Amino acid sequence: MLSYYVYILKCADNSYYIGITNDLDRRIIEHSTGFNRNCYTFKRRPLKLEFQQEFNDVLEAIYFEKKLKGWTRAKKEALVKGDFDRIKILSECKNETHHKNISK
Asked: What residue stretches are annotated with the GIY-YIG domain (predicted)?
């Protein structure tokens, strides 16, 4: 059975890169050596693997990757640190019109 990995790299400029692969070791080597000059990470080396999550279903991995790419930097940093309570707090709606924030 093939495994899929969603991963987060921290770049030299402190930005994050999120990707998906079925061979994490190979992909990290490709990023680190500058295999693809057009890749986001090419000019942002050196890189550090900050997070990885394994999936058995490619569709679940793709869904998770897209979800992470939509997250704020703060949520990504909380994930890297394993601070799931912080992720929950950062995920709560802060709009004044949200039902939790309306004064009764």
From this structure: 2-78
Looking at domain 1-70, what is its CATH homologous superfamily? GIY-YIG endonuclease (3.40.1440.10)
Record the tokens describing residue 103, joined without a space: 């004064």
Closest by alpha carbon to 74, among 93, 87, 60?
87
Q: Is 3 exposed, middle or buried (CB count within 10 Å of its CB: 0-12, 13-18, 19+)? A: middle
Q: Determine the Cα–Cα distance for residues 52 and 64; give it in Å rounded to an integer.
A: 11
- Residues 30 and 49: their CA atoms lie apart, in Å, by 13
- Rounded to whole angstroms, the Cα distance separating 87 from 60 reads 20
Instruction: Supply φ then ψ for residue 52, to 5 degrees.
Output: -150, 145
What is the arithmetic mean of pLDDT over 15-42? 96
Task: Tell me the per-residue pLDDT of 60-72, one tens digit each, with 9 for 90 and over.
Answer: 999 999 999 999 9
pLDDT at 1: 82
Separation between Cα atoms, residue 77 and residue 81, nearest integer Å: 6
